[in-house]
Specification:
The protein is mainly alpha-helical. It has two domains: 46 residues, no CATH class; 168 residues, no CATH class. It is built from eight helices and two strands. A two-stranded antiparallel sheet has the order 1-2. α1 packs parallel to α3 and α7 packs across α8.
C-alpha cells in the first residue's frame, strides 16, 4: 500500500462525476418510462418486468413521472376526441339548419301564403313568426348584437348578418348536442328529441323572454305546428349527418 503522500492523483476528468451518473440514469429512466407508456394504451411494464394495467402502474410509489405522463396523454386524447366530436356536430348543425330553412318555406307555400319578404329570404327560417308578426327574431338578434359593439346596421346589412346569426346558432347547438350524445349511454337518438327540445326551449320560451318575438300564447296553432315541424327536420337531419361525420 502506497503511503498517503505517494498516492496517485486522479484527474477530475477521469472520475465520473455525480452529474454524469445522474444524466446517464435519467436518460435510461426516461427511455424506460417512455417505453412503458408506449407499450400499450391499456397496459405497461412494471419494474419487475411484469405486464400490469396502466391504472395500477401509475398508482404505485415511484411512478409519479409515469402518472403525469399518462395523465397528459389521456387529457390530450380526450381533448382531441372532444374537438372532433364538436366539429362533427357543428357541421351537422349547419346541414340541419339549411334543411330547416327549406322545410319551413315549403310549409308556407303549402299553406297558400305568400313567402315572407325577410331580409335574408328563405335563410332566416322564421316564416311562422313573419307570417303572423311581420318581424324576424334572427334580424332582431343581429341588430341587438351590432348595437352591443356600437355598430348600426343599414337596411341591407341584416340580409347578410341575420343568416350568420341563424346558422351560427344551429352549428353551436349541433356541436353541444354531438358532445352530449357521445358521452351519454343508451340507444342512439333519432334527432326528434333534439328538435322538440330546441323548439320548446328556444322558440316557445327563450324568444318571447328575450323580446325577440311576442308571447307564443298569442300564436295560432298552425304557426306552432310549422315551427315544431321545422325544428323536427333540424333535429333529424342534424343527427343523421352527425352519425356520418363521426365515422369519417
Amino acid at each position: 500500500m502506497l503511503p498517503e503522500s505517494h498516492a496517485l492523483p486522479i484527474k477530475a476528468a477521469d472520475a465520473p462525476s455525480d452529474s454524469s451518473f445522474s444524466q446517464c440514469f435519467c436518460r435510461r429512466r426516461s427511455c424506460r418510462l417512455h417505453a412503458e407508456i408506449t407499450v400499450s394504451a391499456a397496459s405497461t411494464i412494471d419494474r419487475t418486468g411484469r405486464a400490469t394495467d396502466l391504472n395500477e402502474a401509475i398508482t404505485k410509489p415511484g411512478h409519479s413521472f409515469l402518472s403525469c405522463a399518462a395523465a397528459g396523454l389521456q387529457a390530450g386524447d380526450y381533448m382531441n376526441s372532444t374537438m372532433r366530436t364538436a366539429c362533427a356536430g357543428a357541421v351537422a348543425g349547419l346541414a340541419g339548419t339549411f334543411a330547416m330553412n327549406v322545410a319551413q318555406r315549403l310549409w308556407s307555400l303549402a299553406a297558400g301564403d305568400r313567402p315572407p319578404e325577410s331580409a335574408a329570404g328563405p335563410h332566416d327560417a322564421r316564416d311562422w313568426q313573419e307570417r303572423e308578426e311581420a318581424k324576424n327574431s334572427n334580424e332582431l338578434a343581429a341588430q341587438a348584437l351590432a348595437s352591443v359593439v356600437g355598430i348600426r346596421l343599414t337596411d341591407r346589412q341584416p340580409a347578410a348578418v341575420a343568416p350568420v346569426v341563424h346558422f351560427s346558432f344551429g352549428a353551436a347547438v349541433g356541436a353541444v348536442y354531438s358532445i352530449y350524445v357521445d358521452r351519454r349511454r343508451g340507444d342512439a337518438p333519432s334527432g326528434l328529441e333534439l328538435g322538440g327540445g330546441l323548439w320548446l326551449t328556444a322558440d316557445e320560451i327563450a324568444m318571447p323572454v328575450l323580446g325577440l318575438s311576442r308571447s307564443t300564447l298569442q300564436r295560432s296553432p298552425e304557426k306552432h305546428l310549422q315551427s315544431l315541424a321545422a325544428h323536427f327536420v333540424y333535429g333529424v337531419v342534424t343527427e343523421q349527418v352527425r352519425r356520418v361525420a363521426v365515422r369519417s
